[in-house]
Amino acid sequence: GEGGADGDDYSRTDDDDDDDAPAVVDLAENKVATNTNAFEIMDDLMMRSISLLGAYKARHGGLRASFGNASELTGMADFAVRYAWELLLERHRDTPTDLLVQNNSMGGGSNDGVDLTSELLVTTLQLYSDHAKNFDLIESEYHMLSHYILSFPTFSDVSVKVLTLKTLEYVCTGLAGANSNMPLRVVTEVFVSQCKFLLGVASEEGGDVDEKDDGDDDD
Fold first, then answer.
1. What are the Cα distances from residue 82, in Å, to 107, 142, 166?
2. If phi over 0 gives left and psi between -120 and 50 gives alpha, with beta otherwise, what is residue 109?
3. Rounded Cα distance, 40 and 107, in Å
4. Which of 80, 47, 77, 49 is nearest to 62 (CA)?
5. d(CA 79, CA 72)
6. What burial letters (b/e) apply to 167-201, b meaning 16+ CB within 10 Å?
7. Which of 161, 182, 192 is nearest to 65 (CA)?
8. CA-closest candidate to residue 183, choices 148, 133, 159, 137
9. Are 77 and 196 in contact (CB under 8 A)?
10. What is the CA radius of gyration of the chain?
11. From the centroid of its chain, how far is CA 61?
């Protein structure tokens, strides 16, 4: 009777819910990035737009930065810090007009490069936020975020630095199950390299001051 009709209605409601469930899952899975050609293009543009990565290849026989082991990571971080110092000294040697241009272009070598450097990171962040799997897919092969963190000391554009840190924050706090070990290792290596380098510079300057004082005393 009526109870049977109600039971039928209840059953149909359950079936409807079951039919909707796969559609929700499929919608989420559709956001998993699978176009490897697009990844290759993004990687190539990143290598061209970030001056540190090009400089590293030029000084290492065409080999690009590798995140394979701890010693290589330490060497890359040391190189990034030294290169950032070189850029800083170059800016100080420039004329005021050239200095302005250099400040606007350090991230990639031109105004377009700076825009490209930022836009690539925006696109990467969008892919990561579309689906949690995208981070592991892209980072495990291309290390997009790790490259940006490695290059962080060389960026003069504050917006690129802020976006890099926001991307790292999102990966560490907003992506459940994401393997963020490598980006965090790069953060640590760059920080340690900066500390060692700055202590070395301070020590050299202190030695120069002492030698000058000794010379004045002799006079």
1. 15, 24, 25
2. left
3. 20
4. 47
5. 10
6. bbebbeeebeebebebbebbbebbeebbeebeeee
7. 182
8. 148
9. no
10. 25
11. 23
Position of tokens 């989420």? Answer: 28
pLDDT digits (tens, 9 = 90+) for 81-104: 999 999 988 888 875 555 445 454
Please provide the distance, in angstroms rounded to a whole number, between the alpha carbons at the two ends of the chain: 117
Q: What are the residues whose beta carbons fall under 8 Å from the beta carbon of 29, sequence distance 6 or more? A: 131
Give the C-alpha separation, 200 to 197, whole Å: 5
Euclidean distance between CA atoms 31 and 52, whole angstroms: 32
* Band of pLDDT at residue 115, cut at 50, 70 and 90: confident
Evaluate whether 48 touches 54 at the Cβ level (below 8 Å): yes
pTM: 0.74
Q: Please identify which residue in the block is written with the tokens 């706090």.
A: 173
